[in-house]
Structures are given as C-alpha cells and as structure tokens.
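FAQ: What does the model actually see?

It sees only this:
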Amino acid sequence: MKLYGSITSPYVRRIRFLCLELGLPFQLVDTMTESGQKELREKNPLWKVPYLETDDVKIWDSHTITDYIFVTKGHGKFRPKEGDHFYREANLITAIDQALDNAILLFYLNKEGIKPDAAPYLTKNALRISSILEYIKRELSGNHFFSDGKVGLSEIALYSTLDWMRFRSVLPILEEELFVNFLNFHGPNKSWMETAPK
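And it is asked to produce this:
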C-alpha cells in the first residue's frame, strides 16, 4: 500500500495508526516535499490527503480508506464498524470531524493573521467547535464511547483530533480534565507514539 500524506495530518495519522495496529505494511509518500506534492496532484484531483493506492484501487478519503482496510484486512481487535452501535458511532465521527475541520481552518487563518472574529462565519465556526466538544464530553464514558471498552473508529478519531489540537495549540484542550485523561489513557499505545506529529 502506498499512502500519501503528511506526518502532521490527523486524518493521515488515523490510517497510519490502523495500519501499524493491524500489521499492514505501507509506504508513506510525504506530501510536504515538492516531489510528494507533485505526485499527489498528478494522481488525486482533490489534492487532499490521505490518498491511498494499492493494487488497482485508488482512494482519496480517510473514511473510505478505513472501510477498505476493514473489509479487505479485517478489524483485528478494534470494534467492528457494523452493529447496533453503527449510527451512534457514525454521528460521533461526523461531529469529531466537523470540529477538526473547523479547527484546521482556524489554524491556517490564524497563520495568515485572520482571527475568528474577523467575520460572522468564522465566529460561528469557532462556536461550533465548542458546541461539538461539549457534546463529546457528554458522550464519552471514561476513556471510551461504548460499554464494550474497545477502541473503535470514534475513539481513533477523537484521539487524533485532540492530539492535533494540542500539538497545534489551536484550543486549550489541556484545560479539560476529561480530554487530558483520555489522551493520557490512550497515548502510551506504541502506534500512537510512532505516529505522533513532530
């Protein structure tokens, strides 16, 4: 498998984490390099990461890549995607992704000197992140979302999102005890440590 992406991307990190945990070899093409970016743009019309090539399959969405991995390689020790929990977990992942996308937008705008109060749309985005994080806190039971105590796609999404927010200092994540405990509980995992942004 050939995975295109950057070391710092939380969406790419989710795929790297899954591959490491499931023992799936992959080649990472660093899209932060000129050659990696050129190759990505030649192959993927979205110019987005992660992008996966394997055999004759080409996938340019992290959720579809995850589906491909689970269908073709199995889910290993992870909570399977299907089951009674499917819709709740899908909602959790959608919410987490929305918070992450808005945080990424704020991060890049801030680098350009544009603050959230520069426009009503940006202010709404910042407030949306807060609303989602409050929802996540209500849904999180200890260090998991479900009583099975397994790590599933929602926990993977949350860990990669919170750790990216902490790494980029986008939001004061470390002021929230629940999130700090979650990060500290899952963080010692070897694959999370190996995929940590730097």
